[in-house]
Amino acid sequence: MPLPSFDELYEQASAGEPLGVVAAGGADRTVLEALDRARSLGWIKPIVTGVVAEIETVARDLGIDLSTFSVIDSQLPAVDAVAEVRAGRAQLMMKGQIATPELMKAVLNRELGLRTGKTICQMVLMEVPRDDRRFLLTDTGITVAPTIEQKAELVDHVVEVSTALGVSNPAVALMAATEKTTEVMPDTLDAAELTKQAASGRFGEAQVAGPLSFDLAYASDAGEKKRIAGDVVGAADAMVFPDLLSANLTVKAIMYTADCRFGGVLRGTTHPVVFMSRADKTETRLNSLAYAIRVARFR
Question: Are residues 133 and 61 in the same domain?
Answer without folding.
Answer: no
